[in-house]
Amino acid sequence: MALEIDEGLKEELVRANSELLRKYSSGRLPDRQGLRALIEAKVGRIQRLNRLSGWDLEAFLGQAPIVGVDGSVNLFGGNYPHYVALLRALAKSSGATSGLESESELASESPPGRTAQPIPSRPVSRCISKCMVHTPLLDETRAEILSHAGRKGWKEINIADSDLRSVKLAWLEMEVAVEAIRAFSPRVVMMDGSLVRHRIATEEGWSKLVEVASAHDTLIIGVIEEIGTHDVAERLGDSLPEEARNMYDRELLFGLLEFGEALVITRPDFKKGLRTAFLRSSSDPHPIGVDIPEEQTDLLSIACDLVFSLTPRGGRGVPIWLDIVDSEARITNAMLEALIDAYLEPDLKRRLLLAKRANRIY
Questions:
Q1: How far apart are CA 200 and CA 76, in angstroms?
Q2: For a FRET experiment, which of 9, 13, 88, 158 has its CA 20 to 30 Å from that of 176?
């Protein structure tokens, strides 16, 4: 029986490989230069990014820090509703501009007539963190899930539950961002992921974030490592071969940009309420995305330059400060299980949360 299954899997993989090769063969798309020209004509402009020197950073940031914001969700238990999720959002202030330039390979040249000097170090690092427990086993949470499903018109409660977790995490991230802006007066807040998630999570929370950022002259940047949209192909429409019209932006833009280039979207209808660019900020041929609120449209170019400048060339394409924040925001499975063991009665854990797969003998 095992041999039959293995042969069946092999045949399926061979078939999938053939279909993917057909779909993504070079003959299915315009040549690279042709595709670049097509995108510039219909979607946005391709421009060179500037790697900011220490002097440039000092001029833009002044004495203000950079704040990174990231969120984490960990689940313990089985399938809906028998699980407990811990949501955490962290805002971490750099406390200084020093150190960022060396970590991200910033240029060390000084402007003509000036002697290059290091920016004075202020190695204070400050954090704001918020957590939330989410479990459908609680009546109040189940009521929230049912209400959310009703607003969305969804019949699948487990899907509504998953979406509500994302909404709650986005809300937590906006809350810590607002508190960090008020507490630290940063010049820039970098948020992990697209700002679309925050803008659609709650209109009230988004408006508050933009309002507070404006009052403190703080630039909000969403940095998207894993691009999941297909807006570019959508805008190109009939200009693409039929097989390429459903390609995601990640696929269509793979290798299209040179290192240090950005595709700045000029169409105002690309993302409602936001302005967007795609960057090749590292040697990785996969681009990343950058969002800013439309109220800060004039700062899109400097936002792209800043992300580029704080990103190691050999890295994943995201600023190193976000990697630092991500590592501190993340809740590991071991940490969550330790918390469950410490604060939940063993009988409740066994009755409500332990999945049968945990008792497998092989």
A1: 27
A2: 158
